[in-house]
Amino acid sequence: xxxxxxxxxxxxxxxxxxxxxxHDLIFVFQFVDTKRIADASLRMAQITLSNGLCCMSPVxxxxxxxxxxxxxxxxxxxxxxxxxxxxxxxxNAQRYTSxxxxxxxxxxxxxxxxxxxxxxxxxxxxxxxQRNGDEVSEALNYQFxxxxxxxxxxxxxxxxxxxxxxxxxxxxxxxxxxxxxxxxIYLQTVAFxxxxxxxxxxxxxxxxxxxxxxxxxxx
Length: 219
Fold this sequence. Notes:
The chain is an all-alpha fold and 219 residues long. It is built from 10 helices and no strands.
């Protein structure tokens, strides 16, 4: 609770710049050096705790909450993730709502919240991303929404349509870092309905890869 009572930073522009830099580095580290993610996340939290709050502070605490959960302190991680969401209004950071929900939802909230609630949160994050023009967070939220909905037992027919349309959208946007994940949800749904060998060439899916294609890209 003491974090909610922190004053605003006196060097807002500098802190926002630094926190954005570390946030971007974490995104890069996911592909090149995951061992550095914890250090970058800790540094984001330190900047806010040392200097005060700014609009990027909710993102900083959401990133660090993930580290706490993945290193075994699930209770504290969940509390910090929940606090990150509460901070959005306090520091007028609505433009980062989609990003914070994408981080906190499936990566933190699962320790204490039902899957359907998490799916609903990601759907909200998706809509916030659309409103704010945050295409990356918008797409991440919708992919998490599809995955959690699939796991929680949503109708496979519904997931099949939604995941196919999403994979096609990711292909059109050329968001390559998300393409295999979005296609995997679609292919898994089709496999459960039709079988692994089914080839769905209707509805524009001829440009989507097969399981073999995804495996080849991963190697």
